[in-house]
Design goal:
The chain is about 40% helix and about 20% strand. It is built from 16 helices and 17 strands. It has helices at about 5-25, 30-50, 75-85, 90-105, 110-120, 125-145, 150-155, 160-175, 215, 275-285, 290-295, 345-355, 365-380, 385-395, 445, 465-470; strands spanning about 60-65, 65-75, 190-195, 205-210, 220-225, 235, 250, 255-260, 305-310, 315-325, 330-335, 335-340, 395-400, 405, 435-440, 450-455, 490-495. The strands form three sheets. It has a nine-stranded mixed β-sheet, with helices on one face. The protein has a six-stranded antiparallel β-sheet with strand order 12-3-4-15-16-17. Strands 13-14 form a two-stranded antiparallel sheet. Strand 1 and strand 2 (about 65-75) form a beta hairpin. It is globular. Bound molecules: zinc ion. Zinc ion (ZN) binds near residues 406, 414 and 461.
Length: about 500
């Protein structure tokens, strides 16, 4: 008898037993209790069966310091299956928060995003990533019985590019009446430094993720991916999403990658390849700055347009790839520093891809943080290391007001405390968003595939949902999924590491 047949028979017996249990009980509360019991029996039987799926071999997870560390390995479908299975509950929860945000801000329903995923995005994906995404849907279903299918997973993967890049482009093309005010987001503060700028002369790279807290409090996965093809990857990420997406990651050929978005970017190419798959592919296959640039440019769709900050620990060289859609620019050096806080600087990109952005308005969050980066990095030239990077990511100096404050103009953003919000990103006053976690690494750590990360605000402050919602009823629509975002300690994670203690669950 084959394993599969044996499993099907075992599963049928369990279901039959549960059914008899149900019939055997009387009516009313007893029947309800028996029904719940049957549901539980069936779901644990399904989990047991899936647990024996050979695709799970090698994958594991554990939790530490507010993060969930997930190790995935093997062929694309197995990596996906492990991802979907090991993070099943988190994917379902993340989907609820992200889909609420996507539908609320765009005034489009979920079937719209599914259709975009199926018709526009799916055909442009490399087969390898189609297999991985199918694996995620299969693993998720095996674990939780979730009805989400691969197109829901693709739509989830596009949550940074479709709502804020494609939809405003579409609304403009279609002259949609009463179109919502959608802006490309202003995500993140970051820098990369090398040569005489750093303490040991190697590369130091650091990043904090800016997003709404509803998404950000869930952006707490450390993915350790060992694929059959390409390099091993260590990156932070979001449940169900195949790219880091905020982005921070390193690979086993010594490439170090992060980015900040380009404020007020406009444009979309419906024939292009989704950003989430180009970014994942580049981190998996690029062994050099040139490789990285080539992969990101191949099929550029304009989605989630970023200033990419790159380092190659093999050469000590760093780069900034300002990736617009109509224009782009690559700067590179073996002795210097590049910082990012959501501003473009190449004249051609500014003119063609960000026509509304004003680089001279020093009151805005991107420009105020640009000034602060320049101050901090110049003051610390020759001393920059990972410890100092952590302090910089936690910085609360408002360069415009010239004082320390937690607001939208500081590197560790707390927009929920600002009556101004950030109009150029369509973030209203007291918007519950800002810096939601931080990461850093250097050349020596990258050689050993290690990085340091902190969940929650990089400064260590907690965000508490209940008092916030009581004070700001405008955001009551987020109430079901906006939870506390507690900060954890700075914690080192490395590729291939195992949990210190045996896990009792998951
Ligand atoms: Zn802070």
């Amino acid at each position: 008898m084959s394993d599969v047949v044996r499993k099907v028979i075992a599963f049928s017996i369990v279901i039959l037993g549960a059914g008899l249990l149900w019939i055997g009980r009387g009516s009313g509360n007893d029947a309800e209790a028996a029904k719940n019991e049957m549901k539980e029996v069936m779901s644990s039987a399904r989990e047991r069966m899936a647990f024996n799926d050979p695709r799970l071999k090698g994958g594991y997870r554990y939790e530490r310091a507010g993060w969930i560390y997930v190790h995935l390995e093997g062929d694309p479908n197995s990596i996906g299956f492990q991802h979907g299975y090991l993070l099943g509950p988190e994917i379902e929860d993340g989907y609820k928060a992200v889909s609420l945000e996507m539908t609320h801000t765009t005034k489009r329903d979920w079937p719209f995003f599914r259709e975009v995923a199926r018709e526009m995005l799916w055909p442009k994906l490399d087969p390898e990533y189609q297999q991985e995404l199918e694996g995620i849907a299969e693993g998720l279903n095996a674990r939780t019985g979730s009805p989400l299918d691969v197109y829901d997973i693709v739509a989830l993967n596009s949550f940074e590019e479709v709502p804020d890049y494609y939809v405003p482009w579409l609304d403009k093309q279609a002259k949609t009446k009463n179109a919502p005010n959608l802006k490309s987001p202003g995500n993140c503060s970051a820098f990369v430094a090398t040569g005489s700028w750093t303490k040991d002369g190697g590369i130091v790279i650091a990043h904090n993720n800016w997003t709404n807290y509803m998404d950000g409090e869930r952006w707490r996965i450390i993915f350790d991916i060992h694929p059959t093809h390409g390099y091993n990857i260590l990156m932070d990420g979001f449940p169900g999403v195949i790219a880091s997406d905020d982005d921070f990651g390193i690979n086993s050929d010594g490439l170090m990658v992060t980015e900040t978005t380009i404020t007020q970017f406009e444009g979309w190419d419906p024939q292009g390849k989704p950003e989430f798959v180009r970014a994942r592919k580049a981190l998996q296959y690029a062994g050099s700055i040139d490789d990285y640039t080539r992969i990101m440019l191949d099929g550029n769709n304009g989605g989630y347009a970023n200033d990419w900050l790159l380092g190659d620990r093999k050469t000590g060289e760093i780069a900034q790839l300002e990736l617009g859609l109509k224009a782009y620019k690559l700067w590179r050096t073996k002795d210097g520093v590049f910082a990012g806080s959501n501003w473009a600087r190449d004249p051609k990109v500014l003119k063609e891809d960000t026509p509304e952005f004003n680089p001279n308005d020093m009151e805005t969050s991107p420009n105020a943080r640009r000034v602060r980066w320049e101050q901090l990095l110049n003051e610390n030239k020759g001393k920059i290391d990972v410890d100092l990077a952590q302090q910089m990511l936690s910085d609360h100096v408002d360069s415009f007001e010239k004082k320390a404050e937690t607001n939208e103009r500081v590197l560790c953003g707390h927009v929920d405390t600002s009556a101004r919000g950030v109009a150029i990103w369509a973030w209203q006053p007291f918007y519950p968003g800002g810096a939601v976690q931080g990461k850093a690494t250097d050349s020596a750590m990258t050689k050993e595939m290690r990085m340091v990360a902190r969940a929650g605000h990089p400064c260590g402050e907690d965000f508490l949902a209940k008092p916030f919602l009581a004070a700001h009823p405008d955001y009551a629509w987020q109430e079901p999924y906006l939870h506390d975002m507690k900060a954890g300690p700075w914690t080192v994670f490395s590729s291939g590491e195992k949990p210190e203690m045996p896990q009792t669950s998951n």
